[in-house]
TrEMBL record:
<dbReference type="InterPro" id="IPR030673">
    <property type="entry name" value="PyroPPase_GppA_Ppx"/>
</dbReference>
<feature type="domain" description="Ppx/GppA phosphatase C-terminal">
    <location>
        <begin position="314"/>
        <end position="487"/>
    </location>
</feature>
<dbReference type="InterPro" id="IPR050273">
    <property type="entry name" value="GppA/Ppx_hydrolase"/>
</dbReference>
<dbReference type="GO" id="GO:0016462">
    <property type="term" value="F:pyrophosphatase activity"/>
</dbReference>
<dbReference type="Pfam" id="PF21447">
    <property type="entry name" value="Ppx-GppA_III"/>
</dbReference>
<keyword id="KW-0378">Hydrolase</keyword>
<protein>
    <submittedName>
        <fullName>Exopolyphosphatase</fullName>
    </submittedName>
</protein>
<dbReference type="InterPro" id="IPR003695">
    <property type="entry name" value="Ppx_GppA_N"/>
</dbReference>
<dbReference type="Pfam" id="PF02541">
    <property type="entry name" value="Ppx-GppA"/>
</dbReference>
<dbReference type="InterPro" id="IPR048950">
    <property type="entry name" value="Ppx_GppA_C"/>
</dbReference>
<feature type="domain" description="Ppx/GppA phosphatase N-terminal">
    <location>
        <begin position="26"/>
        <end position="306"/>
    </location>
</feature>
<dbReference type="InterPro" id="IPR043129">
    <property type="entry name" value="ATPase_NBD"/>
</dbReference>
Length: 503
């Protein structure tokens, strides 16, 4: 007889599903100390297997096998202590829902797709947490498989972040097909990278920095290769580029007469594109030297996750900042939030809304449901959804933002069947039930009155929704009664029967 192994509650896991490699970091947290206890790296090269915004079957089989191996390691870690994020390759794929479903099943944990700017922020979190504290600004450069992230920050605070669609895998496939290396190819790759970098050049140079740090594979591999040449300098990098051109092919650089001592054979297929991007970045920003830095996206995900559990959740400050920026009526938002949470407490068991994430999203949606009023009252639910869907929101994945936007967009007026079908952060039934609770809360608080609402009992007999009001209360509130009658028609569109009775 076997028993299910229980892991210590102090274990946290971060999974970075990158365009080139999948990475896992497992750490043990005890007190204020964080101790890495395991790492796994799987060189999948997902970006190289994307054609017409779809992942080729052979590439996905390789990815699925890697996910299964990582999943075996983290499946028993509690959901709130593990986080998996997908980056540029997942952002490119058109039909992500099926892939995310397969990945989530293999890992035993939900996979989130994060935006490029959020990826840059998390990279900075990873670098700044592991690097000694300093007063000056620093530029962090990370060249991944499908994208390049740049962040200027001071201490632990990122000040400006950018993500550009160029990486070592994508650029090698585009400019150095088959591993062939020529000078015209390098010139073309560097020129294209310079064009991409020009879009952010002015803003970054205006802030300035006193130190440049490089993280992740390409930069760390180049720094190690050039360590005996004085480190990763612009001059040494040009010399490496020239030697690669003379070698003419990636295979020749790893072995044979033209081999470069210490050449990273495991990165040979993607190295030329990464060096071209790195060279372009150093030329664009006039960087003479880059210091290799420990810490990258996976460490950023890990530290950010641990911060959430210690109630240092950057998402809370993101919501507060949006409320301030768009002049949200905080008193009304608090009324709606309190009413919605009362409903959730009564319905969470029969409706299966017991996960802590359900309460968080309902609370955030209530706080931001009127964010679109800063644009116009007419259609403000659509304006609010647009703002939340398209704003850079530190701490939130793209899927999280889409769910939050959907709840805001459906908090009033017409509720379309199928509106939640494409959600990946929550299934359609869960999304619809959260929307129903928010809609009822908004309706009950429509008067914007400081007079407290009476106790309204919410129940879900047969999975439906029943509201029990004090006797005669609805007779004295005809607007609310009319609103509930209309609401019953809207909720019926998503399969929820709303009934009202006196208690």
């Amino acid at each position: 007889m076997t028993t299910r192994r229980r892991l210590p509650l102090g274990l946290f896991a971060a999974v970075d599903l990158g365009s080139r490699s999948f990475h896992l970091t497992v750490a043990r947290v005890h007190g204020e100390n964080i101790e890495v206890v395991d790492r796994v790296k799987e060189p999948v090269r997902l970006a190289a297997g994307i054609r017409n915004k779809a992942v080729e079957p052979a590439t996905w089989r390789r990815a699925a096998a890697a996910l299964a191996r990582i999943g075996e390691r983290i499946r028993d870690i509690p959901a709130g202590q593990a986080r998996a994020v997908g980056t540029n390759a997942f952002r490119q794929v058109k039909d992500r829902k099926a892939l995310l479903g397969d990945a989530t099943k293999a890992l035993g944990h939900r996979v989130e797709i994060i935006s490029g700017v959020e990826e840059a922020r998390l990279i900075y979190v990873g670098v700044s947490t592991l690097f000694p504290e300093e007063n000056g600004r620093r530029l962090v450069l990370d060249i991944g498989g499908g994208s390049t992230e740049l962040v200027i920050g001071q201490g632990e605070e990122p000040l400006r972040a950018a993500s550009l669609y160029m990486g070592c895998v994508s650029f090698t496939g585009r400019f150095f097909p088959g591993g062939v290396i020529t000078e015209p190819a390098f010139v073309a790759a560097e020129t294209e990278a310079r064009r991409e970098l020009e879009t952010v050049e002015e803003g970054f140079l205006a802030l300035g920095w006193s130190r440049v740090l490089g993280s992740s594979g390409t930069v760390l591999a180049a720094a190690e290769l050039l360590r005996s040449n004085g480190g990763l300098t612009r001059v040494a990098l040009k010399g490496l580029r020239d030697r690669m051109i003379r070698g003419a092919h990636v295979e020749a650089l790893a072995r044979g007469p033209a081999a470069i001592p210490g050449f990273p054979a495991d990165r040979a297929l993607d190295f030329p594109g990464g060096i071209a991007v790195l060279r372009a970045a150093m030329e664009t920003f006039d960087i003479e030297r880059i210091e290799p830095a420990e810490g990258a996206l996976r460490e950023g995900v890990l530290f950010d996750l641990i911060g959430r559990r210690r109630r240092q959740d950057v998402r809370e400050s993101t919501i507060r900042n949006l409320m301030t920026q768009y002049r949200v009526d905080r008193e009304q938002a608090e009324r709606v939030k309190a009413t919605a949470l009362v409903g959730l407490r009564q319905l969470k068991r029969p409706w299966g809304l017991e996960h802590e994430a359900h309460e968080r999203f309902l609370r955030w949606a209530a706080e931001l449901h009127e964010v679109g009023l800063s644009v116009s009252f007419s259609g403000h639910h659509h304006h609010g959804a647009y703002i939340v869907r398209n704003t850079d929101m530190p701490g939130f994945s793209r899927d999280d933002q889409e769910l939050l936007a959907a709840l805001i967009e459906t908090h009033r007026q017409r509720l379309r069947p199928g509106r939640f079908e494409k959600m990946t952060a929550a299934d359609p039934v869960t999304s619809g039930r959260l929307a129903a609770i928010l809609r009822i809360a908004v309706l009950l608080c429509r008067r914007r009155s400081r007079e407290p609402l009476p106790l309204i009992e919410a129940s879900a007999p047969d999975g439906q929704l029943e509201l029990a009001f004090p006797p005669g209360w609805l007779d004295h509130h005809p607007l609310t009664r009319a609103g509930i009658a209309k609401e019953a028609e809207q909720l019926a569109a998503i399969g929820i029967e709303l009934r009202v009775r006196d208690r």
